[in-house]
Amino acid sequence: MDLGIAGRWATVCAATEGLGLACARALAGEGVNIVLNGRDSAKAERRAAGIRDEFGVRVLPVGADITTTDGRAKLLAAQADPDILVTNNRGPQPGGLAELGDDDFATALDLHYWTPLRLVRAVLPGMRSRKFGRIVNITSAMVTTPSPLMLASAGARAGETAIMKGIALEAVADNVTVNNVLPERIDSGRQIQLAHLEAERAGIDFEEARRAQAESIRARRLGRPEEVGSAVAYLCSVQAGYISGINLHLDGGSYPALI
After folding, report:
1. Buried b vs exposed e over 45-57: b needs ≥16 C-beta within 10 Å?
2. What digits encode the pLDDT tens for the residues 159-191?
3. Localized where (predicted)?
4. pTM (2 decimals)?
5. What are the backbone angles phi and psi of residue 155, rounded to the nearest 5°?
6. Which CATH number applies to 9-185+224-250?
7. What angle do CA 159, 164, 169 make, to 5 degrees?
8. pLDDT tens for residues 27-46?
9. Which candidate in 12, 18, 42, 195 could, as Cys together with 86 as Cys, close a disulfide (CB 3.0–4.6 Å)?
10. Would you kindly state where each structural domain of the chain is located, as residue ranges?
């Protein structure tokens, strides 16, 4: 299927590894030019060169911490008028109420509420005036199925989800869609981090913790980053112009509720 977005520009946040990189690669595979962000400038340069060589699209690496004002300014200076914005960031500190301090919750809000909101606020007017825009926020299954050990993630991302829904209701009239993808147990560095923490907490070895991750999913396997990338690319397509304001679970069929 031709997604109809070749030649457009996408800004993909936290895209030097994991889910962000998978999204950048999926979009580049559709002929989309990429602004590729990561905190490590050298790593961003290497990833950009690899995507550029493989897919033949333009790729602008931007080494910047987008939770900062200067970092966001640097990202937006690379391409002030992207057609596509994929917001993404590292996961907040895991833990329950007794383990997390105010700083942990504040950091989670910076990562997964204020940063995506400020980026959307910067690019949305241009998208609406040009009558095309696709915004996809990578959030988490914790939005709809909060875990007592992932409180910072659940709280910040639930707030993000609510405000993005309100934005979506207005923006879609100008052919700008705003959607969220909710990954769970995707085989990335985050899952390795969580497996180490669970092994320590439960007194089990790392491999047992990894097996438990897969067994917690109805599909009995971890998801692949490229599966997330493909879903995000479709939500950015011309064919997806009638899809907006949704939360798409990418969880191997694990979400238990009806709606």
Report:
1. bebbeebbeebeb
2. 999 999 999 999 999 999 999 999 999 998 888
3. Secreted, Cell wall
4. 0.95
5. -65, -50
6. 3.40.50.720
7. 135
8. 999 999 999 999 999 999 99
9. 12
10. 9-185+224-250, 187-222
